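assembly run, all chains below
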Amino acid sequence: MTITMPAPRESILDAAERLFARQGYAGTTIKQIGGDAGVNSALLYYYFADKEALYREVLTRLISGLAAEGKRRMRGARDPREAIRALVEGQVEMLLARPHLPKLLVRELVDHQAMHAQGIITEHMAGLFSAVCDLIRAGQRAGIFRTELEPRYAAISTIAQVVYFFLARPAIGLLMGQGPAVPPDETMREFGRHAAGFALAALAAHPNEAAPIDTGNP
Amino acid sequence: MTITMPAPRESILDAAERLFARQGYAGTTIKQIGGDAGVNSALLYYYFADKEALYREVLTRLISGLAAEGKRRMRGARDPREAIRALVEGQVEMLLARPHLPKLLVRELVDHQAMHAQGIITEHMAGLFSAVCDLIRAGQRAGIFRTELEPRYAAISTIAQVVYFFLARPAIGLLMGQGPAVPPDETMREFGRHAAGFALAALAAHPNEAAPIDTGNP
DNA sequence: GTCTATAGGTGGATAGAC
DNA sequence: GTCTATCCACCTATAGAC
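ok done. output:
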């Protein structure tokens, strides 16, 4: 029986993704990545020009397809309400499937002067963001959503909840009085259902048309 | 006329705060901080034990009094609705007054394994968070807020909006189609007013005062 | 392709003059 | 208190053997 050896290029990218997310760009060393990937650190320079090229590659691999997936999830819905719910709950699934994404994205935002991946992010994200705005505008035209809301602000309020929850994930247990353990995936989904309901209630023009609220509490 | 020389200890803390927020802990060097503060880098070791002690000092200086101010702002209000509005709009003022706070806080969250200031943050923030939860519970008991909402989740949704907006501030201009310029303070306040209204609409038991309570199950 | 060895530079921290 | 000079560890990146 032989153990299948993973392609070194992929092992390097995997290790780099993990470490950059955990420790940041400056806090991660080439030797650490090599060690974690099970290869000699000099090999990284065979596959990538330098540390920053590797970092950019990590980000593009992670982000590409993300915005596309987000839009696809919204497209399936029949009306704006359903689309909002699909969007918010989809956020949770996408972030669960890419555990390092929120940290890396936020580091990029916060390090914006470094801007290792300026273009990559803004290109992909701006598209998704304006799709959410259009969705809210459509709901407003249909009389389902309140027209007093500025669509772009409402889009931000809607998106913020899940992102914030994932960011704060390590601290959430402490805040919610459940000890230092990191909340399990099911808690993240439960919050996603709450967040969708919260946004829909805030958007709703008429209370009775608000989608059912799932508190997540059995 | 003599120019008042700032106390070097304060200059060092100011420069460190700026640089740690911009570049992160690992990305900032002692020599950079010294240079930015206008003193020799060796002097940092006269005032602070080491780099990490300096970092902790920066965080405590920034955070101390923050939770207290948050609670004070809420206490002035007469009912839960007013308190929520005071809280959210107060968030904006507090973050405007401490421009480096959001970045530093999020870095801490994201670097939680490093946890330079674990205690400092969780102690201060957990208190504020549970005050928000109590506020929402009070509104629910008074029949003003929907009881289907899990108070802790609702607190997170309420708080998330402004924090996210500040974090994304450098990218907000691009997302909102207003070019690369960083949004002015007035835009931040405008969003604060929106966010308070968004949260209140989501929390409200009967938006029209006369409307029956939505059971959430059509 | 993958490794060893190492160059060249920089970072945190200290010793000690003034 | 504040500076100069410097040590040592470690980091990125390259040269070159296999």
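Chain A is about 65% helix and 0% strand.

Chain A touches chain B through 63 residues (CB under 8 Å).

not gonna interpret more than that til we talk
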